[in-house]
Amino acid sequence: MELILKNNSSEKWKWILEVLKHCPKLQNLTIQEDSIFENEVVDNWMDPLIVPECLSTQLKTCLLKGFKSHAIQFAKYIIQNSKLSFLARRQFPLFPSSYCCELPASTSFILCSIAATGSLFIDFGLGFEFEMSRSIPTEDRISSLPDPILHHILSFLPTKLAAITSTLSKRWNPLWLSVPTLNFDDTWSEDFISFRHSVSTVFLARDINLPIRSFHLKCSNQHFNAYDVNRFIYAALQRVGIEKLDLNMSGRVSLRVKLPDSIFSCKTLVALHLRGLKQLNDLSHMVMDLPRLKTLHLSNVLFRSVEYLPKLLSRCPILEELHIKYFYLHHRQEIALKENFQCLPNLIRANFSNFTVSVDVLFTLCCRAQVLHVELNMKRLNTSYRQFPMCHNLTYMELILKNNHSEKWNWLLEVLNHCPKLRNLTILTDEDPRHGYGVLDNWMDPAIVPECLSTRLKTCLLKGYKNTECEIQFAKYILQNSKVLNTMSIKSASSLDLNIKHQMITKLTSSRRASTTCELFFY
User: How confident is the model at residue 131 (pLDDT cuts 50, 70, 90)?
Assistant: First the structure.
């Protein structure tokens, strides 16, 4: 229970006691006094004859906030009658004895009263504030943890911050140099020269035989040197057992970083993240073999040739997670792409954004995936969209559809027909206002209902709706044919007029629903 008491009353203390008597199982009590009239205090406290049951049997913690000296008697009463399991032998660790002399006499008395039983927090602005709790041990439990656990804790910090922990004690002094995770970010340094010195110092100070499991390098400074960057990457790869490599070179558009060839034949690598690499290596004659790679993220990576990406993917036999964003090619040879891309047999999650390949290539890659996020420019939709394979494992799909196409609705139906186990569907319509919002009203209810609607679909979220006739018809079709649908959510476009939004809500709420348990939500 938390009580905030504004101003004062002659019956305040009696009322608080009555509250305690009526709360026999109270374990945690907080009382804050928030009075602007400091002199309006009636010191009429009297210890009651009967101790409230919660004090004698239940109360574990008590926090008094904002009280002045008139609360001393009440605080003593709580301390003397709350039979908490304190360790009386514990010494009060938080404030040295010299602080007691500087506090008011009444506060010193409280400090002495609870020194053996609880912990004290002083609020010098409001008078005093204290919290009774179970005894807190004075020994440093974290430092007594074994090295692997401390290494794990430090692995969540950038290496520059992990190094600061060496000043804590002799126990912590050498730990940061044996953490199997290195995380370097040049934004933490004033310039690239000081950043280069810091990275070099760490590598020289570490035992060369110690493994580096994860290496993260971010270089966004416009003056960073490609030679030094390659040197850092090579040094990390030379250590035993690297499993995760994260390289972010997003700071310079024109800089070419030639990665060590050993990256693409690393037998221990499990996760590879590449960002901002404008000219990736010539992979035509390179022997690539990534037998353990499960996660591959490519963002803003420019391949020199159309064949390099499918070749790279084909050398990742157990790949489970694939993210591709801003995929660039010098020569967009779609025919060659279709011939070279193959289904990734172990893929579980796929995320494609601004991936400039045809839709059928995209679905060929991820036909075994369970989770799929796709951002598509509908202007790139071509007549081959019906040629992609069945996605028998897909259960969650999010589609972000930019701009419009005369075949958009037919394509959506085709997608649903190719995803028989789909349970969660999200569709966001994100049109460019510069191109207008003209949507061809060419929706027609298909003769055959997709299998996922009649047997699987549980949730459907439609975002960016503008109350066009086709949008309403599609939403109604989902409602009228999804027999196990639990929730249908409609999020209108931010620019939509309230009156038009109300019309849309009226149309959809009156629609028939195939599922008796379906709830309809509007945002």
Answer: very low
Portion of the chain with pLDDT greater than 70, in percent: 79
pLDDT tens digit sequence for 293-313: 999 999 988 777 778 888 899
Contact 12, 40 (CB under 8 A): no
Complete DSSP assignment for 251-319 = T-SS------GGGGG-SS--EEEEES-SS----SS-----TT--EEEEEEEEESSTTHHHHHHHT-TT-
The answer to whether the CB of 461 falls within 8 A of the CB of 425 is: yes
d(CA 512, CA 283): 56
pLDDT tens digits for 486-495?
A: 999 999 988 8
What would the mean pLDDT of 452-470 be, rounded to a whole number? Answer: 93
pLDDT tens digits, 332-379: 555 556 667 788 999 999 999 887 777 777 888 899 999 999 998 877
The radius of gyration of the chain from alpha carbons, rounded to an integer in Å, stands at 33
Strands (E), 157-231: 181-185, 214-218
Cβ atoms of residues 29 and 62 within 8 Å: yes
Q: What's the Cα-to-Cα distance from 308 to each of 264, 276, 280, 286, rounded to whole Å?
A: 12, 17, 9, 10
Q: Residues 6 or more apart from 48 whose CB is under 8 A from it?
A: 17
The rounded Cα 188 to chain-centroid distance in angstroms is 22
Distance CA 339, CA 303 (A): 17
Going by the DSSP 8-state scheme, the letter that residue 41 receives in this structure is -
Confidence at residue 279, expressed as pLDDT on a 0 to 100 scale = 67
Residue that has been written with the tokens 């009060």 in this structure: 92
User: What would the two tokens of residue 398 be?
Assistant: 């999010």
Q: Is the pLDDT of residue 475 over 90?
A: yes
Q: What angle do CA 335, 336, 339 make, to 5 degrees?
A: 90
d(CA 227, CA 435): 45
Distance CA 6, CA 499 (A): 45
Contact of 483 with 514, CB cutoff 8 Å: yes
Number of H helices, E strands in the chain: 16, 18
Alpha-carbon distance of 475 to 489, in angstroms, equals 10
State the Cα–Cα distance between residues 224 and 231, nearest whole angstrom. 12
d(CA 321, CA 262): 22
